[in-house]
């Protein structure tokens, strides 16, 4: 039968993620009409719980976009960067680069500030760039999934505002795993999606949009249709989506967000992510030749990156991946483009351990135990 050979792997990659049994079962709940009275039974609690997970930021509306995280990032560019604006895309890795690409391919006047892989945004360098370019809008990544760096969003936003610009934040891999600090940061938009720390399949992007952003969008030409935050917020305010949502995912999201808020609790979930980070860091100490890759003090609670010893290579990490598959796990051999660049510079590659969403601390311990055994084969 179709599906008989689909492997039941424990995903330790950085999205999509392992789904809880209850979330998988919620995929069997009834389909519904998105303009019918059945719709708010799902989307009213979804919107309420999204706000709770975000820390109830004053004056922000959650919007659910069809597509994935990238669709929301693109909507933020299309709706919030005017033709007369300059946008500064600050990048600490592949996803920061993606924001710059989205600005460029949408014809915006975009400049980029790049930091070396593994480094967080340096406030001094950011200030220099703000003084040099005088941007109107600045994009940056809360949690850089390609390098395992978490930026100090509050300090970065404060600096951006101090120079008269408005921040937009890509928080795709962190929402649901750590505080957003939206209230302190006051970004135009805070963008995320379902398939990372929230513990759901991919299919929706989520954006938190404020009044300032809606006013700004009024002055932006050619916002598109599905990328127009004004049209999107119009529907979101009545707990609907602009276009037909994935009903299966909406059912799963309704169940999962209720679990996060009312069962696990938001504080409990954030604490569990910190605990998993501690486990990953402790394991690194036991692994001869392996080092934590991300800058100290800026290490993500949703994933950890490891710098391998000089005898490791991209090809060997591919072998590790297959050996881990034999143990029932999907191993993450690092972000392809970054490892290629590292190898070209004569450096050993990095790999990632995703410890986000509903992975439990004891599962991370088990996984790292097996991984340690596999890595010791390579000398
Ligand atoms: C995964 C990810 C994206 C891309 O999101 P998609 O849902 O794959 O479109 C963007 N930014 C960050 C930080 C991510 O982790």
From TrEMBL:
Keyword Kinase: no
Alphabetized UniProt keyword annotations: Aminotransferase, Pyridoxal phosphate, Transferase
Family under the similarity heading: Belongs to the class-V pyridoxal-phosphate-dependent aminotransferase family.
Listed GO biological process terms: glycine biosynthetic process, by transamination of glyoxylate
An example Gene Ontology molecular-function term: alanine-glyoxylate transaminase activity
Residues with PTM N6-(pyridoxal phosphate)lysine: 196
Domain Aminotransferase class V residues, every copy: 62-317
Protein name as it appears in the record: Aminotransferase class V
Binding site for substrate: 352
Organism: Maridesulfovibrio salexigens (strain ATCC 14822 / DSM 2638 / NCIMB 8403 / VKM B-1763) (Desulfovibrio salexigens)
Domain of life: Bacteria
Cofactor(s) listed in the protein's UniProt record: pyridoxal 5'-phosphate
Taxon lineage: Bacteria, Pseudomonadati, Thermodesulfobacteriota, Desulfovibrionia, Desulfovibrionales
PANTHER family: ALANINE--GLYOXYLATE AMINOTRANSFERASE, AMINOTRANSFERASE CLASS V
Gene3D superfamilies found in the cross-reference section: Aspartate Aminotransferase, domain 1, Type I PLP-dependent aspartate aminotransferase-like (Major domain)
